[in-house]
Amino acid sequence: MKLGKSLIAWTAITVLSATALAGCSSGASNGNKDSASSGSLTVAKPDGAGVLSTQINNPFIGTGSGMSLGYDRMIYEPLAMVNPVGKNETTPWLASKVEWNSDYTQLTVTPRKGVKWNDGKPFTADDIIFTFNLIKNTPALDLAGLKLADIKKDGDNVVMTFSESKFVKQGDVLQISIVPEHQWKDIADPTKDPVKDAVGTGPYTVKSFSSQGVVLDARKDYWGGDVPVGQLKYLEYNDNTGLLRALQNGETDWAQIFITDYQTNYIDKDPDHNVFWGANVLSPDMILVNTTKAPFNDVAFRKAVNMVVDRKAHAEKARSNAGPELTSVTGIPQPTGDQYIAPDYKDKNFTIDVEGAKKVLSDAGYTWKDGALIDPKGKAVSFTLQDPQGWNDYVTGIQLVASQVKKTLGADAKVATPDADTWTTNMATGNFDAALHWSGSGSNPWHIYDDVMNGAYLEQAADGKVSDNFGRYNNPEATALLKEYAQASDDATRTAALNKIQKIFVEDVPAIPIGTHPQLAEYNTRNYTGWPSEDDQYATADPTQPSAVQVLMNLKPAK
User: Fold this and answer.
1) By three-state DSSP, how is residue 84 classified?
2) Is the peptide bond preceding residue 284 cis, with omega within 30 degrees of 0?
3) How far apart are alpha carbons 402 and 385 in whole angstroms?
4) What is the reported pLDDT for 12?
5) Which uninterrupted H or E stretch holds 552?
6) Neighbours of 213 (CB within 10 A)
7) Structural contact between residues 102 and 18, judged by C-beta atoms closer than 8 angstroms
8) Are 65 and 209 in contact (CB under 8 A)?
9) pLDDT score of 2 more than 90
10) How far is 512 from 471, CA to CA, in rounded Å?
11) What is the pLDDT of residue 22?
12) What contacts 37, CB < 8 A, 6 or more positions away?
């Protein structure tokens, strides 16, 4: 599987309240800054050697070597880390304090004192202001649509004002990589410049870059104290198979890939040290259905398919139990999202109900002829599920659904596996019937529903392409409720809106939730402990996320 926007890039991640943002600890100790770190870790991705053909350390170029491999996360740092798991806490980082106003249209941050860029120059409030103005004045960099109206200094603080509430997009703001004004003010085109000389506040600098990999050395003057690992080595493998082999034989220490039967194929290779963790974030996998054409333009057919999907089989056979089975009819992963499930659906779980599904169809005018499902217009029901070739877990997932629907309902469900580029274009242009796809992720479920129910994406379509709501579901009430949730200034209003959103989702089935979509990671404890885990969810363990530097600074040499 090739991970999507919600898993391989910094994304819209939210927190529950402004009070959670008022802490001052960075999670990094202030030790003897003159001591040299020792030891090394090897981090790897399965994206192919092409990533290492050109050195691109620009944190605003998501496809560059720095962001693709994740080593930029160790050089450039954000104002704060927002945890999508555990207690959904926010940890101030380059800011010593962050605080939102009541309606989340204004953010006040206190720049951390004593921080230096790796070229020795001091980090100041001016660098924060420069970075956000750079994004504001360069639309191509504003991928999250920050809608920053104003940013200015107020004493020791920086105050940002936005033209709309940032409640659901706090992570987009807080986890932006801050860049140095003294270097970037002379960069003519920040959307294209590779920034070979990477000047950041993070604990590492680039020692070497080649087609064989990237080596980072720990700083001796890092503001967060002693860096526990002296050197990081970043490697690229051609595919998951090659990277898995490297994990198995100890060539690689830290990675993020899907592993079929991870217990046998990874953990059992060194059960005392190898760890596979799928952090159960609020992001389900869904069968996205094209609601603009038959058969999925009919809510009765969508409901029927939803009633016969075997989610237990999906968790076991497609996902190798990398995450828990998806059980709530709301599509909200549990137990992470228990607190958000509407009272009407607290105890409503998915069940396979073939007879119930057939009744829904027959009541809507469907019939059967020689076992084949016939729609109310007399046509045999047929559709194709598509996902890219090589995405084994997703392809297995759609094969399971096709088999189930064909067997239980008699619809002619086919499977297609185009290349990834073709599939991506098909999704954006609506050239599909159905596909298995991830959803947005955050510390509340807004992104789950925004991805499949927000009609605003249809209005923003360019050249017939949409960036989300690929199923083109158009329900003005749902769109208005999503906007109401995002702009609300109190929890009661948000809760009321979310409950109504869930009701529409359950009753109208704009997409078919099928499984959880955890943030995957593999690591070992042979040389270092302190990693995040199911028992200590202070962050996900994905080495490409903004929190990778937080994970690194929490490590301790194994005894």
Assistant:
1) coil
2) no
3) 7
4) 32
5) helix 548-554
6) 17
7) yes
8) yes
9) no
10) 11
11) 30
12) 218, 226, 227, 228, 229, 230
